Amino acid sequence: MRYLLGLDIGTSGTKTALFDEDGKTIQTATYGYELFQPQVGWAEQDPEDWWKACVKGIKDVIEKSGVQASDIKGIGLSGQMHGLVLVDKDHNVIRKSIIWCDQRTEKECDYMTKVIGAKRLIKITGNPALTGFTLSKLLWVRNNEPNNFEKIYKVLLPKDYIRFKLTDVFATEVSDASGMQMLDINTRNWSEELLNDLNIDKNILPNVYESVVVSGHVTEAAAKLTKLQVNTPVVGGAGDQAAGAIGNGIVSEGIISTVIGTSGVVFAATDTPRFDEKGRVHTLCHAVPNKWHIMGVTQGAGLSLNWFKRTFCAKEVEESDKTKVNIYDILTKKASKSKPGSNGIIYLPYLMGERTPHIDPNVKGAFLGVSLINNHDDFVRSILEGVSFSLKNCLDIIENMNVNISEIRVSGGGAESDVWRQILADIFQHSLTTVKASEGGALGVAILAGVGAGIYESVEDACNRIVKGKEKVNPNTDLKDLYSKIYETYNSAYPRIKDI
């Protein structure tokens, strides 16, 4: 039997997963690390923490599975998108990585829009200037840390730093690179006109490949640390959202993915690049060759429930520790005791600003409509509903871009809750299908590795073989009018609170 390894370098931890060629999960390991917030709205991580988590995870899955390293035929890399990793000429990390949810770069975004022009920026990169994307972070370092900027030899994304540690190769691939805002998504290569206009040296960027291409091989040093075999192929891989979409079989037009992770994403594959002229959703290159995707992002999805748990749920956390029942199962059970509409509370999930449909790094979250009748259950439910309304904003924009929707698949940590899945179906008023691909992004990049290694003919063929629908959640049509009315109120709230 041949095996494939998927590494998913996430925000809270790195998941390492070993699969056989039928997509069956053989062994997984997850190791977490710290998120640093030096100031409000800032978010950083240490790339060395990612590498240590990868080394531990790879050793774990090889040792515990009993699989021979020589039977692992390919490695795929996925990871949090948009992070800025700066490496000097001695290949050392210059500073902590500024990651995807960091919001410090508003001035740099204004500068980019002024120099390039809003419409031209969307035409080239598929997106307006965004605080979360890598380019604005690079400009921030140039403006605020000139000594660090002068040391830059290569600019990498989080997963591509792990590629370098495994292979000694500086490389990236189209899906993650198109989230840097330096790639021309029409030609699927670096935009020399944009880089020239912003006075950025193209040589600091790695070579960019299609996602299924083998970009390097495991070195002796990395093999010694991880117990992998020397020369094991490493493919381009994918940004976390494109990887998760492949793990869910979102590789052709008509099938939509909704992911409730730390952030929330609505994702649609397209055969041609399509743009929202207001830039409210992202158009990026898909990890499937000659495909693109549209992606709407809610910054604070699972993040909102995690924040609420940490801040207001000491009793429930204690109960979870005593009973060994998952804390999120306890919280979503509480949410189920509240009525649809959360007894009047509406939650706006803007804990880290927002991306879709409001490109606003400064807007703050809120609970609206609180009264004396409300209890803890109502607040929890309002979070599940508020995040679902924000995801519906994403879905509405994609529908208005003439993307056909034949099926919506749902995944991510939040989607493991039957309560949250039902709320999402009721607010979308669409049936939702869960998929068996529980490892999501790690499976997606393992599939890409399998294509690169010649195990599968194409990404589409692999998904047809591996990804199967599981259970279906149908919307409660009796709630359509109620949720439509609340959705109107939800949408009316942003203009009223955005300047507070």
Automatic annotation (TrEMBL):
Substrate binds at M81, H82. Its EC number is 2.7.1.17. Keywords: ATP-binding, Carbohydrate metabolism, Kinase, Nucleotide-binding, Transferase, Xylose metabolism. Coiled coil: none annotated. Residues 3-247 form the Carbohydrate kinase FGGY N-terminal domain. SUPFAM superfamilies: Actin-like ATPase domain. Catalyzes the phosphorylation of D-xylulose to D-xylulose 5-phosphate. Belongs to the FGGY kinase family. This is Xylulose kinase. It comes from Clostridium saccharobutylicum DSM 13864.
